Amino acid sequence: MIRIGRRRFCVVAGSLLASPVIEAQRADKPRRVGFLSLDSAQSVAGRQALELFPAALAKFGYGEGRNLQIEWRWADGKSADLPRLAAGLVRLPVDIIVARTHAPIVAAKNATGSIPIVMLNGNFPVEIGLVESLARPGGNVTGTSYISPETLGKQMQVLKEVVPRARRVAVLLVPAGDVQYAQLMRSSLEQAAGRLGMTVEFFDVQRPEEVAGALDNVATSGADAMFYPGSPILRTRTDEIMDFLRNRKLPSMAMIPTFAEAGGLVHYAPDTQEFFDRTASYVARILMGANPADLPIQQPTKFELVINLKTAKAIGITVAPAILVRADRRID
Fold this sequence. Notes:
Elements: E1 2-4, E2 31-37, H1 44-58, E3 68-74, H2 82-91, E4 96-100, H3 102-111, E5 117-123, H4 125-128, E6 141-147, H5 149-162, E7 168-173, H6 179-195, E8 199-204, H7 211-219, E9 225-228, H8 232-235, H9 238-248, E10 252-254, H10 259-262, E11 266-269, H11 272-287, E12 304-308, H12 309-315, H13 321-326, E13 329-331
Parallel strand pairs: 2-3, 2-4, 4-5, 5-6, 7-8, 7-9, 9-10, 10-11, 12-13
Antiparallel strand pairs: 1-13, 11-12
Helix pairs in contact: 1-11, 2-3, 5-6, 7-9
């Protein structure tokens, strides 16, 4: 049984979900929006996007086949294909590119400096140089930011609370060919773990076929917990990762939604529906003439804590009552 008690997702910029778009403000011809993802259309994340993104845009008066055309581009976990896919969207051209997660965002930014780009789950946008600041992005990029040193610190804290005995934490990391991004992830997690008396060890995965080897290395590392940052590349091997965690009886913590439902121990993540709604709100505003340079980057301030008690029992973990009380959902 799943018991639900969901906290709302908040943003630094305040509530930006607008009233329905006034008909007279829409362009007469259908607007073309590109959606660029490292996932596959058949994956959980892909199916989620295919459902949630059009539904979110509909809240602002935009519907496929009426006044909107969405150009879906899926890299199927192959990051090397992203520049080609992004360039194809630019050539069409599209009015806006919505890029989901770090590698597609960078690919879109490299492909165009003029077409507006709306990030869906961006990472370190200021530190990497995608935007000038959170309040005033400048340039052609805005949207939602998912990962920051602060959010990673919160998530490592939750792992320590759920698994107090955790000392050595394995991290599956997908550098995505971006040295600066990888360094930011490593340093943020190392600092967060150090404050909690833990150490982290990173196991890089560049392609889906490398996941098995990385898991073999985790098995011999002596790690007593796993931190799962999530990535479209890793999501292509979700079943394999879950089998490994179950067989090794390894406690696991993820920063992405659906991880606990898939069999992981716990996830602490922003609400997915809200991310799509906020992204759609910016798409609608830009289509009506807003300048992305002036739209502040939206960040999560509250997260949903989900604990899988079936998994906890199977791997021999007892979750403290104080943590269970704070959980938004428990999977019994």
